[in-house]
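Weekly structure sync - notes
Attendees: PM, LS, DV (DV joined late)
Agenda: review two folding runs queued last week.

Item 1: First target. Sequence and structure tokens pasted below for the record.
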Amino acid sequence: MTDHPANGLDDVVHQRVRLGIMTITHQARQVEFGFLRTTLQLTAGNLGQHLTVLEKAELIQIEKGYEGKRPRTWVTLTAAGQAALRDEVARLKQLIQQVEQPETQPTADR
């Protein structure tokens, strides 16, 4: 029996907000904290907590600096973050395929 795709989902990446952070950051290459906060409709504290989880897992890199006189925080995906996002998307595609092609699903024993 093969491993079910759901077993390979990464709990750190799969959480809704963190998956959003990673996909937005992947698309933008580098994204500013305020943009993430607004786009994902989060409080600064909530976003900060999710960024901390991703940073501790070494999936993102956080850079603090200034734009003019205004402090800014920028987020980029690390190589490990890019790989984790690719793996997560691949597993999600496998799950979608199983739902869209139910005739290929094994039947459960009763």
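Item 2: Second target, run right after the first with the same settings.
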Amino acid sequence: MNDYKNIKTFDDLIELEHGKIGTESRNQYEEGAQMFIVSEMLKSARKEANLTQEQLAEKAGTKKSYISKLENGKGNIQLSTLIRIFEQGLNKKIGLTFL
């Protein structure tokens, strides 16, 4: 069991739970967190556009099952596909930031 007595920041908690930056467990956590963010952004944008998953898939040239996987954080997505879904399917631009 982890010892939470010395936890003072969110970063401390993440490091305790998932390891230091660069470790395999931390990398897996970070990847999952990013996929969750993308999936929630996609779901929110689709609902804001009043589209079903099927309608979005048709507009973006993909399948409903693929949109569903992405919205549930289960799929692996290529950047070109993500851009196509947002730009063609949702009429939104994507901006990327590298940290």
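Discussion on item 2: Residues 24-48 form the longest helix (25 residues).
Action: LS to circulate a short write-up before next sync.
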